[in-house]
């Protein structure tokens, strides 16, 4: 079974870039990204289906959030390069949580300011709708950036872009749901009391989801530590991991928390502790299968998005409003990233990003994708058709234009390979950094000591601790 998974992993990588390679070799088109091609193929597929059966395929937000997005998030948590993630944990959460909140506030202010300017907004829209719409515009898509910022060349920047991208999407969804909980069709006014309730609801959703995901992940780790006989049945081990991962999403949704945050935290904990308690065959098989399913789901999202291009009423397009929203996104993202970096500089934090890294974090955060489209379809408003066309135009512009210019932009800002590399030290079974830039901060060192003294002895089998290095080796080999 493991050999089949390895072959499938290699085949899906070849299949996903096949058309891309043809374009590069035959037409010398080197600027197109896989996501752009997937959207184009989706639109072409949707057109063919429409011509054959005479029906349109609609983007169902429930299918997206309940079936397509969870595998992507779980794969991100379970297979994340945890050494890099925890080394850059402060910056990832700093920009991912606080940065997204600042971005939302600035976009909200900028859009509300032009609420009554008919030159920009030519349709009636209230403040509550603009707040919801602003939360939709906060959800970024870093797939294109990650394809350029390779982990071997930019380990720190890649880790921050990846982690911040997932947290950004999760926070955007939480903000959207928090506002939506206190805005009804009959009462769409916004006052101080509602704003306070929204903030409290946001905190409840955020910390409740984190606690739930971590708790379920730790319980599964204890389960595999206790019942070691499952190591004789790799298929059962893998099945339990998949089921429990999705269970963390479902139970969070049932309890009205964020399933996305819960699932990511659960995947992160399971990949960190549960991984050490399962057999080697299950370790490799689980990594490959989760990575493959997540990759296919991600590709399907863009194809699905392309299909939806045919279902939009383009007569409702508000071009000036779309341009204004794009400019607002640029301003909000720039202000959030560089103001947070300035604060980081004032307090002389050990972990910092240089100018080129900050510019890349800003640029990549301006690209919008399927999460934004899925959120706007959850909108309940008389202006739904107009807002959907605006969001779709923003997605197409940022994905095709900004995504295509990503490589050129990286060269223009002088983005250079980080002068460090991860190497595996077999003598002490740890991963060290050649450059001091990736050395752990004092806080991370204390956290690592706490984990070694208390967490790992409780949640892992000592005989499996030596296997921790295997996942890193396997991740590197599977990507070659």
TrEMBL record:
This is Sodium/hydrogen exchanger. Belongs to the monovalent cation:proton antiporter 1 (CPA1) transporter (TC 2.A.36) family. PANTHER family: SODIUM/HYDROGEN EXCHANGER, SODIUM_HYDROGEN EXCHANGER. GO terms for biological process: regulation of intracellular pH; sodium ion import across plasma membrane. The chain crosses the membrane at residues 31-53, 59-80, 92-110, 130-149, 195-220, 257-276, 288-307, 319-347, 359-380, 386-406. Residues 22-408 form the Cation/H+ exchanger transmembrane domain. It is a multi-pass membrane protein. InterPro entries: Cation/H_exchanger_CPA1 (IPR018422), Cation/H_exchanger_TM (IPR006153), NaH_exchanger (IPR004709). One of its GO terms (cellular component) is plasma membrane. It is found in: Membrane. One of its GO terms (molecular function) is oxidoreductase activity. The keyword Ion transport applies. Pfam families: Na_H_Exchanger (PF00999). It comes from Ichthyophthirius multifiliis. It comes from the Eukaryota. Its main location: membrane. Keywords: Antiport, Ion transport, Membrane, Oxidoreductase, Sodium, Sodium transport, Transmembrane, Transmembrane helix, Transport.
